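Researcher: Next entry in the queue.
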Amino acid sequence: MNNNVDHPHTRTCVEPERTALILIDVINDMAINGESEQFAADALEAAHCVKALKSQAKAACIPVIYANDNFGQWRSDFAGVIRHCTADDAPGKAISELLHPDDDDYFVLKPRHSGFFGTTLQILLRHLNRDTLILAGFAADVCVLFTAHDAYMREFGLFVPRDCVASVDPDGTKRALTLMSRVVKADIRASEELKFEAVSGGPPSGFS
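Model: Structure for this entry, 208 residues:
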């Protein structure tokens, strides 16, 4: 393995015209045996940072794509997943409501950990002409990590703001961020430290 070769799409600042924001499992019931409340509390802090990041991205005309697990709702669509995750008894209700998608956002439902596996995400990104991704969401050491790995293998440039991810185990978040920085060349600076280039032109084209 040669891990010293420069990645073709390594970025030092966010270029809106070539970037997409991928929100991974932010519509989430947080129903984890024995750890739901702590995970939901840790994730809520990150979710507020994700909310601010999403607002900044949309102001820069960066498309927002929800790459979301179906959480076992195999007969449902994304609207059904949202209803499931915002139910009164869902530990992740507050997060799911905070990060509720807007009408002009995109979404793909993923059957497994990676946002790319078994989904149309790569086709959508090609349609939008994007080669750089900002990843945010849950859990950092599972679905965000797997998505980052698959994105790197497809030669996407990567940003993973460290304050916009969380895991069941906080140490797992630290380990995952270290791996993403070292192995898949992700920029893991905090969201407030990201530098956005000036926007030129109008909003990106997409499906109506």
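Model: The two ends are 43 Å apart (CA to CA).
Researcher: Noted, moving on.
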